[in-house]
Specification:
471 residues; mainly alpha; two-stranded antiparallel ribbon; two-stranded antiparallel sheet; disordered N terminus
C-alpha cells in the first residue's frame, strides 16, 4: 500500500508548449506497507453509536475512515437527546444558550466542527534563490532551505500525517510535498539562468544530505536534471522517521480503536513538542511512540488507583534495591537510571494530561494512593507532571488583573501538594520523609549530600532500609 502522492516533476517538452514535470515524490515518501484489513474503520462506525463523548471526539478528530461523511451520517441518525448531551459536553457553560436555537442537523454540524482539528494556514514556498545571495556560504543556504522545509512541516497536523501514513488522502501533506516541488522548479530556473552557481549548489546538496530529505531530494533531482554528476538521492522515504513507527502501531496493536486513539492523542502532544516547538528539526531520528505510563494504566480497563499504586511500588522497590551510598558519591548506573526514569515519568504525565485531560482525575487518585504507599519516588514524579500541566492550562490558572498575579488551583489537597514545594531544598518533603520514610524522592537527598556530606547519606539509608533492602 502506498499513500496518495501528488505529482512533482522534472521538465520535459509538451505538445502544448507548456512545461511538464515527472514525479519528484512518486512513493509519497511513505514506507510501503500493507494492511489486509482496515479493522479500525469498522470500529469507527461502531463508536458513533456509543455514549462516550470523548471516544466519539477522538474518532472524528483522527478521521480514520474513507467516507468523510461517516460522522455526519451516523450522528444524524442518533437520538436528538443524545446529540444534545454530546454537544453540551463540548461546550463551555456560557455557551449553553446557543444550543437551544439549533436544529438537530445544526447540532450535528456543530459537533463535527468542534471535534475536527483546524491546523495553521498552509503557506506557499517562500525561499527563492537570488543572485543577491550568491555571496552566502553554501552551508548558510542549506540551513535556510532546511529551515523553510521545517516551517512547512509544522503546518501539517499530526492527525493529517497519521491519515496519510495509513493510505488516506491528506491535503496538507500533499501541499507539503508540492512546496518542495516548487523549490525544485525555482532552483532549476535559477541555475539555468546562472549556471556559474551550479558548483555552489552541489555543496548545498551535500549539506542537505543530513537535513530535510524533501529539500535534499528537490536539490538532488534538480542537479540531475542539469546532468550534474551527483549521487542518486537516498532510496529511503522522506517520512520514514515518523511514518514507520506510526504504521507499526497499527500492526502491533490488538484491534482496539479506543486504545490506539488514546495513544495517538498523547503522541500528538509529543509530536508538537518534538517538531513544532523545536528550533531545529531532526529528520532521521525515529519518532518515539513508546508511552509506558499508558501501557501501565491500560485506560481501556483501568485498575483501582490503590492497586496500581501497589504494583508500581513493588516495581520501584526492585529498582531501588541495588542503590548504595556509593551511588551518591560516584553516581552509578542505578541512581542515574532512577533519576532519568523520574524525569521521563513526569514528562509522560504532562503529555498524557495534555492529550487526554479526562484522565487527570484518575491520575490524582493514583498520586494519593502512592502517598499512602509511601512511594515518594513515583508520587513526586506524577505530581510533578500534573504541576507541569496545571501551570500552563487555563483550567488551573487564574490571573488577578488588580494585582497582576497568577495563582494556580491546587491539583491535590494542599497538604500533599506542598511536598513538591522546592523551597529550602524541599523542606516539607524532607520533614515528611523523616517522620514517615519510604521510597525516597532522590533529588533533595542528593542536594543534602552535596551540602552536608556522608552524615546525610547515613540517615537516608537507615530510613530507606525500613522500606527496601539495599546494598
Amino acid at each position: 500500500m502506498s499513500a496518495y502522492s501528488p505529482s512533482a516533476n522534472v521538465p520535459f517538452p509538451c505538445i502544448s508548449g507548456q512545461l511538464s514535470y515527472l514525479e519528484l515524490f512518486p512513493s509519497g515518501e511513505v514506507p510501503q506497507t500493507f494492511f489486509t484489513y482496515r479493522w479500525w474503520e469498522d470500529e469507527a462506525t461502531t463508536v458513533f453509536w456509543a455514549f462516550d463523548p470523548h471516544e466519539i471526539k477522538r474518532v472524528i478528530r483522527f478521521g480514520l475512515f474513507r467516507d468523510n461523511n461517516l460522522p455526519r451520517k451516523s450522528l444524524q441518525k442518533r437520538d436528538p437527546q443524545a446529540i444534545t448531551a454530546f454537544l453540551y459536553s463540548l461546550m463551555e457553560p456560557h455557551e449553553a444558550a446557543f444550543i437551544d436555537n439549533l436544529s438537530h442537523y445544526q447540532k450535528v454540524e456543530e459537533i463535527i466542527r468542534r471535534c475536527q482539528i483546524s491546523g495553521p494556514p498552509l503557506e506557499p514556498w517562500s525561499w527563492i534563490p537570488t543572485k543577491r545571495d550568491s555571496g552566502l556560504p553554501s552551508i548558510a543556504v542549506a540551513e535556510a532551505i532546511d529551515t523553510e522545509s521545517h516551517l512547512h512541516f509544522t503546518r501539517v497536523s499530526f492527525e493529517e500525517l497519521v491519515r496519510y501514513f495509513l493510505g488516506y488522502r491528506a491535503h496538507s501533506v500533499e501541499w507539503f510535498l508540492q512546496q518542495h516541488t516548487s523549490l525544485y522548479i525555482h532552483l532549476l530556473n535559477y541555475l539555468q539562468m546562472f549556471p556559474e552557481e551550479i558548483g555552489k549548489y552541489k555543496e548545498v546538496e551535500q549539506h542537505l544530505q543530513t537535513r530535510s530529505p524533501f529539500a535534499y531530494r528537490a536539490v538532488n533531482r534538480c542537479l540531475h536534471s542539469l546532468r550534474q554528476p551527483v549521487p542518486a538521492s537516498t532510496p529511503y522515504p522522506g517520512f520514514q522517521f515518523i511514518a514507520a513507527p506510526i504504521q507499526q502501531l497499527f500492526k502491533e496493536h490488538l484491534p482496539s480503536l479506543k486504545a490506539i486513539l488514546l495513544e495517538l492523542s498523547v503522541l500528538g502532544v509529543r509530536f508538537t513538542r518534538t517538531y513544532v516547538h523545536a528550533r531545529e528539526m531532526n529528520w532521521t531520528r525515529p519518532f518515539s511512540v513508546e508511552i509506558p505510563l499508558l501501557d501501565e494504566l491500560d485506560l481501556t480497563n483501568p485498575a483501582p488507583a490503590l492497586d496500581f499504586a501497589k504494583t508500581t511500588t513493588a516495581l520501584d522497590e526492585q529498582c531501588f534495591s541495588g542503590l548504595s551510598q556509593k551511588s551518591f558519591v560516584e553516581p552509578d548506573a542505578i541512581i542515574k537510571r532512577l533519576l532519568v526514569l523520574w524525569e521521563l515519568r513526569s514528562l509522560e504525565v504532562w503529555e498524557c494530561c495534555t492529550g487526554l485531560p479526562d484522565m487527570i482525575g484518575y491520575l490524582q487518585e493514583i498520586v494519593e494512593a502512592l502517598y499512602t504507599c509511601r512511594n515518594y519516588h513515583s508520587f513526586t514524579a506524577i505530581l510533578s507532571g500534573l504541576y507541569k500541566y496545571s501551570t500552563s492550562n487555563p483550567t488551573f490558572t487564574h490571573m488577578d488583573s488588580a494585582t497582576g498575579q497568577m495563582t494556580l488551583t491546587p491539583v491535590l489537597p494542599p497538604a500533599l501538594a506542598t511536598l513538591l514545594d522546592p523551597s529550602e531544598n524541599f523542606v516539607a518533603y524532607r520533614q515528611e520523609f523523616q517522620s514517615s520514610p519510604g521510597l525516597p524522592f532522590l533529588f533533595p537527598h542528593i542536594r543534602e549530600y552535596q551540602q552536608h556530606g556522608p552524615p546525610a547519606l547515613h540517615q537516608l539509608f537507615q530510613q530507606l532500609q525500613r522500606q527496601v533492602p539495599t546494598n
